[in-house]
């Protein structure tokens, strides 16, 4: 089953595993680095962003290092099977991608800055893979929590697509979809903050080398709606 066609082809709802009404495992209470609760409800004023950019071990570390991020957790999103396990997701029979939920203070770090980190931290042109990691669970995705997030994410994709084409890369395969109909299911405890617990563990995250300039208030909502503009590739 692990090497079936579903490794590189999403299952239909009818083909997906049945799942279960509740999680089959416990999730730790607090973040091992930031010290804050993993599961909501979260304090007033914070917002939630969901990203899929390959193996979630390295992806989560990228985001917990950002000032203004209150907590992060990894899980499964964008599929059909309720409350899946890691083994089920890896089989390709649930339709989920490995995702990172980022809970952040928008007064400290705007959503556009998280989008910048997302695009630069992986290769969004690879379809159902990231580097040597092959499978539908490694696909690139953004799941949005408001119309404003959806608009910003789509605009950033357009901008980054131009930057990638200019440097000879292929087209972006990232899916950008509302999160309200794509539940986030937290992953098993050993996956949470994995690279804090295992500093020498596998990361698997690497970008294209194509950079975006740092968002600034001077260009938000003007020439570049997301506050993101292409920057030259760095050696």
Automatic annotation (TrEMBL):
Keyword Cell division among record annotations: no
Region ranges (Disordered): 1-20
GO function terms (MF aspect): peptide-methionine (S)-S-oxide reductase activity
Domain Peptide methionine sulphoxide reductase MsrA span(s) in chain numbering: 50-203
Enzyme class: oxidoreductase
Biased composition (Polar residues): 1-11
Active site location: 55
InterPro entries: Met_Sox_Rdtase_MsrA_dom, Met_Sox_Rdtase_MsrA_sf, MsrA_MetSO_reductase
Catalytic activity: L-methionyl-[protein] + [thioredoxin]-disulfide + H2O = L-methionyl-(S)-S-oxide-[protein] + [thioredoxin]-dithiol; [thioredoxin]-disulfide + L-methionine + H2O = L-methionine (S)-S-oxide + [thioredoxin]-dithiol
Signal peptide boundaries: none
Keyword list, A-Z: Oxidoreductase
EC numbers on record: 1.8.4.11
GO terms of biological process kind: cellular response to oxidative stress
GO cellular component terms listed in the entry, alphabetical order: cytoplasm
PANTHER family: MITOCHONDRIAL PEPTIDE METHIONINE SULFOXIDE REDUCTASE (PTHR42799:SF2)
Family label: Belongs to the MsrA Met sulfoxide reductase family.
NCBIfam families linked to this entry: msrA
Function: Has an important function as a repair enzyme for proteins that have been inactivated by oxidation. Catalyzes the reversible oxidation-reduction of methionine sulfoxide in proteins to methionine.
Name recorded for this polypeptide: Peptide methionine sulfoxide reductase MsrA
Species the sequence originates in: Streptomyces auratus AGR0001
Gene giving rise to this polypeptide: msrA
